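Final report, Chapter 2: Outcomes

The project's central promise was a pipeline that accepts a single protein chain and returns its three-dimensional structure in a standardized token representation, suitable for archiving and comparison. That pipeline is now operational. To close this chapter, we reproduce one record exactly as it appears in the project archive, with the input sequence first and the structure output second.
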Amino acid sequence: MRNALRLAGRGLGRVAPNPAVGCVIVKAGQVIGRGWTQDGGRPHAETVALQRAGEEARGATAYVTLEPCAHHGKTPPCAEALIKAGLARVVIALRDPDERVNGLGIEMLQKAGVRVTESICAEAAAELNAGFIMTRRQGRPLVTLKMATSLDGRIATASGDSKWITSPAARRFGHLLRAQNDAIMVGVNTVLVDNPELTCRIDGLTQHSPVRIVADSRLRLPLTSKLVASAGETPLWIITVPDNDRDRLKALEDIGVTIIEVTANASGLPEMTEALSALAERGMTRILVEGGSHLQASLIKEGLADRLEWFRASSIIGGDGIPALQSIGLERISDAPELDLIGERRLGRDLLESYFLRN
């Protein structure tokens, strides 16, 4: 099952709106087939593994990281494919929370006489597909905040200079995070200051740049920005509010930008709970939020941030530097959001700390 989970991880950032699933088929102590969900969500992991196993699959055991699907969609049910292939046993890490499955795949297998074992490496499987599970249970994607700061929590000097706070090794790992998410989100101020591309620039992964999303209540995104210029190559979505200038909106749409209008909050900014729900409806399961400080602060304040990847450089900028987060309105220490440190990694001269946020 651990092998199947490693295979499943290859699909992160590539299979939305489907889950990233891995499958390993074993017979007489030998692996005879393996697979993972392919780009775009099809074919499914079980289908790939069965094709590789061929006739040898009869009487074998399949280890699958998520319950095989039981419904007819664009492909036949994977549970049905396993039955037809003559599998004797299926070991499942986690039940699929999708209402079209959620036990029905297991029931289908058992009725056909296939032995089923559940909950093997369930915790690891749940973490791997935390985004998919969240879309099914909470109606929004998994939100991971990415911060790259000095040791004293600054993202730029007082003049706005921010290149480069972290080392090449840290920046390279940051691009890997982009490839493992369905979308990157930033606030429009980040675009106005940095004019970023928000693509994945690692050899071998350049074709896997995620959707770029900009929270921009008043459509201030320049038509000359790198994001707009590349909208025809890498999808660009803008989250905004109603009643913007229709000519500007049409100009962006004509270039190929997708406009998502949501309700404005009391500050006139996009209501982020509604925005995340709209992203889930469009198939997004994992969102990496890279900036800015206002957007990340609002997501923390509203309890909408789930993970934090904090890159800390071995440098100090000082109190006049720009802080990583704007105010989240705290008056008491007891109200501060709590985080659980789940991992640390050295990247060149920098440190990456990974956290769960308790919401």
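Archive annotation: DSSP finds twelve helices and 16 strands in the chain.
This record, like all others produced under the grant, will remain available to the consortium after the project formally closes.
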